[in-house]
């Protein structure tokens, strides 16, 4: 996935020796990071001292792709403005679900 179209990339060039460029500092920002995690717990009492606890956890609940690693090296036109990886709190940054059942006594 590219951040810039080829027509937008053509607007960039290197300034000459001793000249200042026309692009300001920090002109490029990566895409937004959006992540929602959810946890639900239900406790079932058996007796006064014993209970089961069921827990369900969901990471990246809506399975949103979060891109990172925007390439900004103009020397290589084939990768300039390209997202090279995805980022997230989990290793794959894909939706992850886990459930557990615990017995308390």
Task: Report on this structure.
The chain has one domain. A hairpin with a 5-residue loop joins strand 1 (38-45) and strand 2 (51-59). Helix content is 4%, strand content 32%. A three-stranded antiparallel β-sheet has the order 1-2-5, with no helix packed on it. Strands 3-4 form a two-stranded antiparallel ribbon. The termini are far apart. It has one helix and five strands, in the order αβββββ. The chain is mainly β and 105 residues long.
- In total, how many beta strands? 5
User: Averaged pLDDT, please?
Assistant: 82
User: What is the 3D shape?
Assistant: rod-shaped
Reported for the largest beta sheet, the result is: 3 strands, antiparallel
Number of helices: 1
**How do the helices and strands follow one another from N- to C-terminus?**
HEEEEE
Going across the biggest sheet, name each strand in turn: 1-2-5
Give a quick precis of the structure:
This protein has 105 residues and is mainly β.
List descriptors.
rod-shaped, 105 residues, three-stranded antiparallel beta sheet, two-stranded antiparallel ribbon, mainly beta
SSE blueprint and pairings:
Blueprint lengths: L5 H4 L28 E8 L5 E9 L7 E4 L12 E4 L9 E9 L1
Antiparallel strand pairs: 1-2, 2-5, 3-4
